[in-house]
Amino acid sequence: MIKTVSSRIEGSITTFILKLTNKYDLGERTIYVLVFTGWQEVSKRPVISELLGLLRAAWAVEQSNVSDKKYPILVHGVSGTRRTGTYVLLSILCKQMTEHGKLSLITACLAVRSYRYHVMSNLYYFIILLEGLLIYAADIGLIDQTKQSFAVAKKFIRDLATKEREKCDNY
Which branch of life, at top level (predicted)? Predict the structure, then answer.
């Protein structure tokens, strides 16, 4: 049996806390469901701060686990692997930046693509990933966002995303 214990809406993220019981198992499990509504259409670029907010919300759920046991995280999308793959890569690479102060962009993309072929098969999603990484690096202090070069890079990436989106098929 699954029972919704609570739900909370914060911007484009809704968090549900569920309790799962099984008639053959005396224990009870807690399941956290994060629903992100900030990127509903493939053809529309997400607000990067909202996408990074989803990462932080997922990490907060991970940290709230009082058990020493690590539980899996399932990332599920409704239309293939483009958006979910972009999110997964953003999560992996932002954690690398947080823990090591650097990242392995191409290595991570290739590793994820070896499991899900269509991830990063479109330049548009790679550009979104780059924008997310740039903003996150500034958020954690690896990049000085007061410098003009930061603003130039951010504008360049956004302009490139707009141009690339116009070329992409709506599939």
Answer: Eukaryota
pTM: 0.87
Q: How far apart are CA 108 and CA 124, in angstroms?
A: 17
- The three-class DSSP label of residue 26 is strand
d(CA 87, CA 77): 10
Give 161's DSSP letter: H
Contact assessment for residue 155 and residue 113, using Cβ atoms and an 8 Å cutoff: no
DSSP string across 95-136:
HHHHHHS---HHHHHHHHHTTSTTTT-SHHHHHHHHHHHHHH
Structure confidence by residue, pLDDT tens digits, 4-55 = 999 999 999 999 999 999 888 878 888 899 999 888 777 778 899 999 999 9
Which residues, other chains included, contact 131 with Cβ-Cβ below 8 Å and sequence gap of 6+?
Answer: 48, 154, 157, 158, 161
- Chain CA centroid to CA 10, Å: 16
pLDDT at 158 over 50: yes
